[in-house]
User: Fold ATP-dependent (S)-NAD(P)H-hydrate dehydratase from Mytilus galloprovincialis.
Amino acid sequence: MLSVASLLGSLLSRSSGGPTAKIGSFQWVHTSYNKPGLLLEMVQSVIPPITFISHKGLAGRIAVIGGSKEYTGAPYFAAISALKVGADLSHVFCTEGASTVIKSYSPELIVHPILESKFAVHETSEWLERMHAVVLGPGLGRDPVVCLDTAKSILEEVKKKNLPLVVDADGLFLVTEYPDLIKSYGKAILTPNIVEFGRLYEKTMGEKPKPEEPVLAVKVLSRALGNVTIVKKGPNDIISDGENGRFKVKCYHSKERIKTTMNNSSVTKQEQRTFLRERFLRLLSHLSGQDAKIKMHERTSVSCVLGQVDIDIHHVQVSDLTTPMGNIPNAVLRMSDVISIEVPDLNTSNR
Assistant:
């Protein structure tokens, strides 16, 4: 399934007209895309190159409009994915209740908690002057004021500034309510799943799409909306602008990708590492409550009662910690400081 990040790359190629613009010239007619190498080549073609003559911001400034008290993950993943494929700056415009949570996910994101402000549209519009592409909808929620009023006005501002736009999630709810908002806007990409596509199709066409003709349904809806690009997500993504570029993208299960890109020896080693890590975590969980002697770096030895270990095996909680400096009732030890853990008697009952 295509990600918001890959779509942003395509959008940036459209707006820049630079060397990556070739992705927009591909012509496909009911083509099944099932070669991982070819897909990888397409993705690589839209990732901005790193050069010594570039400065921060030239490789892409992205605005994500979304994020509410209930939904903070979606705007984070949209924004951070853009950074991971080469964009320089990712801005998230969200509600006050989502701001602190999204900021805590990553210090790389620039977060604006303004969507509930009465000046939200004006403030967002000023920032849009600096953006190269916009994602509208992830985690937006369906609050009548934020989604149907504020987001609607922001979408109008995006169109006025002629910015490339990805509409996803609750942004598609907005478009379903007001299909004319997006009609004939050639720089828009809609990314509905099968349910969202069905709602938008029924609202626009007055009937449900025919499941036996999925490619035709995407093409018909795209034409009805003025040839905006639609990416219908599913086991096979279907993409069309109503005229050109209608094709199906076959998505590989993660296990299939591993088998395609790694030899059997590497797969076996990975499976072994996974197995050993799971067994190690299970062992540590059973040691909770046991007396232990721990050898640490700097020739230090301590004794304690073991507690829980975090899932990444970075820290271990202990109690009754006896050190050369004295006793500590409760503490957290870094596993990177630990050389060995000795449990004298595993049969000792837990405290």
